Amino acid sequence: MTRRYVQTRLAELPAGPGDADARLRGLLEIYEELNADGHPEPLTLLAGVLGIPAEILVLHLRAAGRR
């Protein structure tokens, strides 16, 4: 999977203030897809496309897993 694919998937996620749970679940889904497809560094790719540190992304993914 490529950076462009991740950008496209992120653009499809809900962006409204009331959609935080759905957005977090979507991030987790994208991460799991990258991981399942054998991407060597799914966390780094996703964090890079989002423009956030990987540590922050980990917090978001953990929150999504708890919801």
Describe the model.
By secondary structure, the protein is mainly alpha-helical. The protein has helices at 3-12, 20-36, 42-50, 54-66. Helix 1 (3-12) packs across helix 3, helix 2 packs across helix 4 and helix 3 (42-50) packs across helix 4 (54-66). The longest helix has 17 residues, at 20-36. The mean pLDDT is 93.
Question: Descriptors for this entry?
Answer:
mainly alpha; 73% helix; globular; 67 residues
Low-confidence stretches: none
Strand percentage, roughly?
Answer: under 5%
Mean pLDDT: 93
Number of beta strands: 0
For the record, give the distance between the C-alpha atoms at the N and C termini, rounded to a whole number: 26 Å
Class inferred from helices and paired strands: mainly alpha
Evaluate the radius of gyration. 11 Å
Largest sheet: none
Give the H and E element order. HHHH
| Portion of residues within helices | over 70%
- Overall, the morphology is globular
Q: What's the number of helices?
A: 4
Q: How many structural domains?
A: 1
Summarize the structure.
This protein is mainly α and 67 residues long. The protein has one domain (3-66).
Task: Please give the structural blueprint.
Blueprint: H1 3-12, H2 20-36, H3 42-50, H4 54-66
Helix pairs in contact: 1-3, 2-4, 3-4
